[in-house]
Amino acid sequence: MISALWVMIALSVLLGIVLGYAAIRFKIEGNPLVEKIDAVLPQTQCGQCGYPGCKPYAEAIAKGESDINLCPPGGDEGIHKLADLLGVEYKPFGGDAQPKAKAVAFIDENTCIGCTLCIQACPVDAIVGAAKQMHTIIASECTGCELCLPPCPVDCISMDKIAEDISNWKWQHPVIIPIQAVA
Amino acid sequence: MFSSPFISQPSSVSQIMLRVLLALIPGIAFYVWYFGPAILVSLTLASITALVTEALMLKLRNRPIKPFISDNTALLTAWLLALSIPPLAPWWLIVVGTAFAIAVSKHLYGGLGSNPFNPAMIGYAVLIISFPAPMTHWITPHSVDGMSLNFAAQWSYIFSGMLPSGLTLDAVTMATPLDTLKTQLHLGQSVADIRDMPIFGRLAGHGSEMVAAGFALGGLYLLFTRIISWHLPVVYLGTLFAVAGLFHVLDPAHYVAPLFHWFSGAAMIGAFFILTDPVTSPTTQKGKIIFAAGAAVLTYLIRVFGGFPDGVAFATLLMNICVPLIDIYTQPKVFGKKGAGK
Amino acid sequence: MRTLFSFHGGVHPPTHKAESTRTPIALAPIPSKLIIPLWQHVGNRSVPIVQVGERVLKGQKIGRPEGKLSSAVHASTSGTVSAIDMQLVAHHSGLPDLCVTLIPDGRDEWISHVGVDVTHTSHAELRHLLRKAGVVGLGGAVFPSDLKTDAHHHQIKTLVINGAECEPYITCDDLLMRERAQDILRGAELLRELLQAEEVLIGIEDNKPEAIAAMQLAVTQAGYRNMEVLCVPTVYPSGGAKQLIRILTGIEVAAGVRSTEMGVQCFNVATAYSAWRALAHGEPVLSRIITVTGNVREAQNFEVLIGTPLDELIALAGKQADTNRYIMGGPMMGIDLPSGTVSVTKATNCIIASSLKLFPPPAPVMPCIRCIRCADVCPADLQPQDLYWFAKSNNFGKAQEFNLADCIECGACAYVCPSNIPLVQYYRYAKSEIHERSVEKLAADKARERHEYRQFRIEREKTEKAERLAQKERDAAAAKASFEAGLAAAENAQQQTINEAIERAKVQAATAHALNTDALTQEQLAKIAEVDARRAKMRELAATAGADDEPPKS
Amino acid sequence: MKRIARSTLQTAVNLAFFAVIGTAILAATFSLTHEAIENTIEAEKLKLISQIVPPSQYDNDILRDVKNVPADALLGTSAPTIAYIARLKEQPAAAIIEVVAREGYSGDIRLILAIRPNGELSGVRVLAHKETPGLGDYIDIGKSDWIKGFDGKSRITWGDAQWKVKKDGGQFDYMAGATITPRAVVKEVNQTLQYFALHRDELFAPTTVSAITTVTGDSK
Amino acid sequence: MKLTEIKAIFHNGLWKQNPGLVQLLGLCPLLAISNSAVNAISLGLATTLVMAMSSGAIAPIRSYVPNEIRIPVFVLIIAVLVTVVQYLMNAYMYGLFVVLGIFIPLIVTNCIVLARAESFASKNPPLASALDGMAMGLGLTAVLAVLGGVREIIGKGTLFSGIDLALGESTQSWVIHVIPDYHGFLLAILPPGAFIGLGLLIAGKNWLNLRAEAKQHSKPASTPMVGEAAQG
Amino acid sequence: MTDYLLIIIGTVFVNNIVMVKILGLCPFMGVSRKLETSLGMGAATTFVLTLSSGASYLISHYLLGPDLAYLTTLSFIVAIAGIVQFTEMVIKKTSPDLYQVLGIYLPLITTNCAVLGIPLLNVQANHNFIESLLFGFGGAVGFTMAMVLFAGMRERMEGADTPAIFKGTAIAMITAGLMSLAFMGFAGLVK
Ligand SMILES: Cc1cc2nc3c(=O)[nH]c(=O)nc-3n(C[C@H](O)[C@H](O)[C@H](O)COP(=O)(O)O)c2cc1C
Ligand SMILES: Cc1cc2nc3c(=O)[nH]c(=O)nc-3n(C[C@H](O)[C@H](O)[C@H](O)COP(=O)(O)O)c2cc1C
Ligand SMILES: Cc1cc2nc3c(=O)[nH]c(=O)nc-3n(C[C@H](O)[C@H](O)[C@H](O)COP(=O)(O)O)c2cc1C
Ligand SMILES: Cc1cc2nc3c(=O)[nH]c(=O)nc-3n(C[C@H](O)[C@H](O)[C@H](O)CO)c2cc1C
Ligand code: SF4
Ligand code: SF4
Ligand code: SF4
Ligand code: SF4
Ligand code: FES
């Protein structure tokens, strides 16, 4: 009994010393994982994931507080990438989050009163204009996050779907016509 | 919407498989000649089971039945499996083996083209592990002793397990030449003594050496019609010869000559028909060479030092496991990235 | 005798060339209307410079090149512009694009045009003239030729002239070589001069003996030195630039490498011909030789005005009732055309009328059995079965790792596949997905940077505000001045990082912008101009107001 | 540095604390169950022995009446083993020996034999084997009664030449398709009987509690 | 604790987060010991016992354990509990002890035990933790039992063979010979059979889930209204 | 020398710890989705397993002896947990990439049964120090090999037309089964 105690005490003290020392000697700050997750997110900053932007969502995922299937702009593809990155199983979109077609915001010039509220809402500074002047959206910068829609007092902002033309047309995954036995 | 190219060479999967089936015929013919028609019963049983299982699985998987059932791959699996188990095996043995091969090792993976393991060999491995006793009762060739069974007797043994009165199982079946060799060596006999036993012929087992030669003949047909490339059979047989030759030269009393290994067991059918299964072998040339050499070494090790009389099936399966990695690490250099353009 | 090299793989589909080589090239009449797409070349779409209702002359420029990588478009005959709008064009997508519709007046009245003395004109000037004349590669790639003749300071040893014409059915280059060998060679000499190449090698497949003879004769007659006509084995795709270069010189040009870096450049025979016409005679590319074959009464080669509607061209060869669709280009790489209303472009070398008999619908697709017939024929030494496996399962990263980018989409693999898998379609799908992803990635990076900058700006504004408040108190307590100095230093350092970030964002924005405006429609362009103007005004306003929170991009 | 040392020590003490509690619990459990475990193990051994020597045939404390048996080629052993001696009224009743048949199909087959003083087998059992299930495992009493075929046999019943499977001209049954396994077992049992003949007296010599006698070494 | 909470914990352990079918933890004993129903259930119950006790024990002390020795302390606690169980079995269920062999001490490293300690017990109160440990253990036991039963029936044609080891000699007659005169499909009781069996069980669970989902989706479509209209 | 070689061959192939002994399955299933990950996990496990085999030999022979054998499990697992934790901290510091890849599985090495199983088997088989080390190392190499091969197969299977209910872990499990079937071919090679 006594020898047993001594043995275990010796063992655990030895380990405790090693671990206690290592805990301090090898301490690291920050979490490189967040950056990697953030790099996968689409940076639309739309908040549809329930977090105030992509980075906070990335932090939540890294901490294991949030699921990987909450970002609609990232699409199915995004979930797959996150699943790969984190080594977890892919899962389809959670809740009612569903990806939408890509769109850019458009300001109806005749209605805009130049209140600058939308400028303050836009997370990527895609709206230019000064107080009491007509505002305009730089289409190439707009991520389509729709955050500028709610603040506008006169509802002059609408979302235009990006139409398909030759320049952005994509080849489709070949749909194999269900194999029919040719008689 | 059509996409280019708009023309294609006339060829189809079912046609390729049909040719492989045809190439098996010489071997089967010799089989019947030396061992009687029992093998035809197992071929038929296996074929029926394979087709029924295939159709059932396709239906369960919601896939069109007709094009897949007529692609002949199920038949091929069935034949190769039937050829690798004793012809006198009870009927349920072949049914279980074939059904397992088609259902589990092929269709659970997604059917034709998706299976990582050779279905026929999975069937064989399952059977030899689950039912080792019936799997070791091989038929004795006609010419070795007078007690060979006629077709009716073979038929009734397969379906009811009854032998004509006066005959024991021991009298009409035997261990295969490879197995006998191993057992006798175990008992301390030398290779030379063992080879004097009546069941051995000039190269290997009496009769079975001709069966192997028949398969080699069919294999050459496949080579010439370019259905298989030379890499697999040549490297496989070459390595087997080299390894067996090395041991034989070092200690001829305990290790048989390489030609014995070529013409025993499943070496020939393995080299030309089993390892060459396109779905489960590597696609690159270097990969095929590694695959075949590895399989040959494993075959030899299992045959000579391992727990099974023949190693072809397990060697194939073990190398099947390595195929994805082999493929990844033997990618050929693409156009323009090969260094000097000569 | 020069030793030829060979490339891995290749296939031998039936050639079907005899049908259209029985008669010489015929001149197609001026059609009832011309639909001239403004985007017939690689690069940016050209910008229309005519108005609806305007009368234009033959050879008059109607679309100006936009940006460096672009080319000009001309009126193929004289007439009136009746519309500038979206029309169906010959494209895989089957989508419409911006076209100028011209109603010919039948007078075929040339704008004034003169050639230059090619020996006494500077290379830069000659290249400019090629661009102005809308000369692009007529071998199929339609890459602007002025850019291809610029060797970028690389020493060019060999100029390869591509007369291989390896695709089945197509014979336009064959007949061009038979009938107009001299002008082709003059063009080749011209290109050699521009590239300062030592030798010219003309590669022609050995199934075109007449063309070979004609070209050889022309070479001897003209007495060009270091120019050889070489007869290459008939195997598809020997006409691919990389494959032909490999056959003739042994050099392999990897994907992503310009052949000029390896001392070779390759032009199609028709390109050489049209380059000569453009420079020596001042004739822009207004027409080209097109093989009309397949399910027609009289397969033949025509010299056709660019913009001629397909229906009218087919009518010349005799339309058959059971024609079900048209293929533009050859059967291996061509495009399935949605309707007969589309018009021919500079890229159109052949129109094949198809019928069920000629091109039966593809047999049922089976799974890949990894038989590697495809790998055996792939001229790019790829593993098509692996690429297919990855493309099918949307595993684009792996597809890239397995060198999808090196696939030249020749279709040899799909041609031999016993499972009838539309392999090329899978590769194109994967390639376009990969492209889109890279574009999206750029956009996301840009958005992140802009967002971070914005957050930083808001933060700074807050601190500034706080600081202003604190300033007052600090004024009273002057003793703490040293502390403030330290703070300012820190601020400076921070400011510097911000500036750098802004710089980076600017550079990126500029490049991304260029990408984004690659392919805008007329209306879009107009709108952008408008917005830009307004924005400039606003910026002025903002500047006068003294606000410094303008976004980093201008 | 001091900080590191202090926190390190803290960790160590912490861990030691839990270790002490855990060890105490364990030690208590051990001492409580110790005896029960010993008893169970002995009971199991007796149960096994009773299969080959009926309890009615001995009356001694068989588990304490033991001899050390050194490794021996005839026994197939490579390390010393223990022989248990059964006695009825002080008279030797049987020697129980653990041996190894080395020529099994897939490795060693461990056997336990009980031999009566007259060289007759009281019983044989397989302790452990790796033979192919379904083919070579009929030597196991759980699978078939084949092993009971040894009961009552001795080298007098059959001469050494007949200690073979029937296929090789001997007396012992086998199952078709699996002769390697019975060959190995028969051969080993025969060898053990030979060993017994050589060492019989040493095995049955009376055991004193103070010194466990060792049977003399290699019989080769 | 509310009833709903308890329900949720058990639903989680037995179905939704089932360690054997979903989390894929604790696989080794699951696969190695499931060649007969009795072995499977016995080990499952032993594991359940350890899990309930360890989760219950870890929950109250978690806040006193510094992070760097968290894992050593947790496994220490688990190891003590396992060893106690091991000794009890050794003393009073010797036959079973021999059959389960090395897998009893290996309960210590059964991933699911530590995983629950880490992910549940270190965040929840003792009672809930103990229940969670128990639910997870029972989930594992359920899978073990099914897998063990199926493998035994297919492999040997019997059910509950060896029950005497667990419950004493007298129960020997409880062994059920499901298929009399059966050859035995050995594959099922060998390692490959274990893997394949579990694979089929997982697929079966997927199938049930899919069906349940499909039902949920089709519910609105099959309102009585539609049914009546169809009849009318 | 040949004995040592046989131990290695035996543990890597014939008695492969995953395929035949059925130990270490959780990481085998969990970390084998990607080739690189499985290589990393294999490397980490090899390191820990070799080390803990040696350490446990020393503990059982010099600290415990036959009298304190009842502390075997306890002392082994505490030592192993310590070694794992230490390794984790070192990797986290020195190779954040590897750390990120191994993610939650590194601490779970502690609960990889193989890591405790092999030392216990060592005790059972009465191995000496070198044998213990080799047994641990061979076992870990076998583990790594099986997992890397498995990862290769799983990567390839991603493109397959697997029935929906089998996609993912179900078919992976069946593949593991067929792999272990193939590994039975090694049976008897080393007796
Ligand atoms: C995987 C496989 C394993 C085989 N194993 C054996 C075998 O162990 N014994 C056998 O006689 N035939 C076996 N065959 C069948 C032989 O190819 C052939 O039937 C021949 O008669 C047997 O030759 P042998 O008697 O020399 O072994 C096997 C075939 C295959 C495909
Ligand atoms: C598969 C393939 C086949 C081709 N075949 C020909 C051909 O037969 N003749 C030809 O001139 N260009 C052919 N090309 C286009 C050439 O690759 C290359 O673009 C052209 O020769 C360059 O000349 P250009 O810029 O004058 O068009 C082919 C391209 C590919 C990818
Ligand atoms: C997979 C397999 C496992 C075998 N296992 C055993 C075995 O455990 N015991 C045995 O005696 N024979 C076994 N054999 C059979 C031997 O290889 C050999 O054929 C047999 O012992 C010779 O018996 P015979 O003399 O009755 O023909 C096995 C055969 C195979 C194919
Ligand atoms: C040359 C050749 C060899 C084949 N060998 C086998 C074989 O050994 N086993 C088998 O089940 N199928 C074989 N097949 C058929 C087919 O490829 C196989 O059933 C696929 O694995 C099913 O997906 C072979 C096919 C060809 C063309
Ligand atoms: S939902 Fe919106 S804010 Fe959240 S990660 Fe996705 S893009 Fe960013
Ligand atoms: S303009 Fe509107 S939609 Fe576009 S990025 Fe800004 S807030 Fe989002
Ligand atoms: S030719 Fe077709 S079936 Fe053969 S490997 Fe290539 S893609 Fe697969
Ligand atoms: S299409 Fe691409 S993959 Fe196919 S043969 Fe041509 S280059 Fe190779
Ligand atoms: S239970 Fe063995 S590793 Fe998890």
Description:
The complex is a heterohexamer of chains A (183), B (342), C (554), D (220), E (232) and F (191). Chain B has helices at residues 13-35, 38-60, 65-69, 73-84, 91-103, 119-130, 151-160, 169-172, 177-186, 191-195, 208-224, 231-250, 258-262, 267-274, 285-305, 312-329, and strands at 138-139, 173-174. Chain B is mainly α. Chain B folds into 2 domains: 13-173, no CATH class; 175-328, no CATH class. In chain B, helix 2 (38-60) packs across helix 4 (73-84), helix 4 (73-84) runs parallel beside helix 6 (119-130) and helix 5 crosses helix 6. The longest helix of chain B has 23 residues, at 13-35. The mean pLDDT of chain B is 90. Chain D is 35% helix and 20% strand. Chain D is elongated, with a radius of gyration of 24 Å. Chain D has one domain. Chain D contains 2 helices and 5 strands. By secondary structure, chain E is mainly alpha-helical. Chain E has one domain. Chain E is 70% helix and 0% strand. Chain E has helices at residues 3-16, 19-23, 27-32, 37-61, 70-92, 94-100, 111-121, 126-156, 163-167, 191-218, 224-231. In chain E, helix 4 packs across helix 5 and helix 8 (126-156) packs across helix 10. The longest helix of chain E is centred in the middle third of the chain and has 31 residues, at 126-156. Mean pLDDT of chain E is 82; it is low at 220-232. Chain F is mainly α. In chain F, 71% of the residues lie in helices and 0% in strands. The mean pLDDT of chain F is 86. Chains in contact: A-B, A-C, A-D, A-E, A-F, B-C, B-D, B-E, B-F, C-F, D-E, D-F, E-F. At the B-C interface, helix 1 of B face helix 6, helix 12 and helix 13 of C. The complex binds flavin mononucleotide (3 copies), riboflavin, iron/sulfur cluster (SF4) (4 copies) and FE2/S2 (inorganic) cluster. One iron/sulfur cluster binds at residues 378-380, 382, 384, 407-413, 423-424, 427 of chain C.
Overall 3D shape of chain C? globular
Overall average pLDDT of chain A:
79
Q: Give the C-alpha Rg of chain C.
A: 28 Å
Q: What separation lies between the terminal Cα atoms of chain C?
A: 62 Å
| CATH third-tier fold name of the domain at 101-164 in chain A | Alpha-Beta Plaits
Tell me the fraction of residues in β-strands of chain A, as a range: 5-15%
Largest sheet of chain C: 6 strands, mixed
Number of helical elements of chain A: 5
Shape, per Cα inertia axes of chain A: elongated
Main sheet properties of chain A? 2 strands, antiparallel
Strand order of the largest sheet of chain A: 1-4
CA radius of gyration of chain A: 26 Å
Q: What is the number of independent domains of chain C?
A: 2
Task: Classify the secondary structure makeup of chain A into a structural class.
Answer: mainly alpha
Oligomer: heterohexamer
Relevant CATH superfamily of the largest domain in chain C: NADH-ubiquinone oxidoreductase 51kDa subunit
